[in-house]
Amino acid sequence: MAEQTEIMVYTQALEKTYEIGDGKLQVLKDINLQIPKGKFVAICGSSGSGKTTLLNIIGGIDRPTKGKIVVNGQDLTVQDEDYLSDFRCNNVGFVFQAYNLVSTLTVAENVAFPMEWTRKPDQEIEKRVKELLKNVGLENRANHFPSQLSGGEQQRVAFARALANDPELILADEPTGNLDVKNAQKIVQVLQFLKSQGKTVIVSTHDVQIRELADLVFCLEEGKLAGNHE
Questions:
Q1: CA-CA distance, 59 to 32, in Å (whole number)?
Q2: What is the secondary structure of 134-165 as a DSSP string?
Q3: What is the torsion angle, in degrees rounded to the nearest 10, for the CA atoms of residue 149, residue 151, residue 157 and residue 162?
Q4: Domain 37-64+80-229 falls in which CATH fold?
Q5: Which residues contact 185 (CB under 8 A, 6 or more apart)?
Q6: pLDDT per position as a tens digit, 17-27
Q7: pLDDT in tens, 76-93
């Protein structure tokens, strides 16, 4: 195994089972992963193969039923909810397929929100919001509300918000899944930018363009890792 400091995500015999009524549904089975820092990783697999669950466990949103998950040197398996909440806020940027923007906040306020949560100074927040919106090509939309934006624009705002606290790890769940070709292309450009910045980016996707960007591709089949290739 490579030096722990060079590994962003390490899983060992990871499993996740949900209890549904009287039955059980095993979503992840014996997942052993090593993702080096600074790599762009695509996770592919059909719907229901466990991609979202794996991303949620890597990001500390969900917990494994068995096994170990270490992210950026921290063993998340043994931590309590308060620790995980702080860890997510400072180390991980999430982008969800459904955008998850706050409808009552403007674009600028949505992007500022994670920085306000970590009590950054107002001037620093204002400067960072402008910089992030410029990076995703939406500086002219700062005072609009999510309902006034297209789906593609909302997704770019979601990326800007995910980058607010400058996390080392970006997780994106089917970021182009709801978008047409033109808007998907703009998201691919944002991902290319993140790759050039040396971020560790893990994307679950069916999008061929995103897979072509990846340094590593992992495929899930019925909750099992079906091999990977560089």
A1: 16
A2: HHTT-GGGTT--GGGS-HHHHHHHHHHHHTTT
A3: 160
A4: Rossmann fold (3.40.50)
A5: 209
A6: 998 888 898 99
A7: 999 999 899 888 888 899
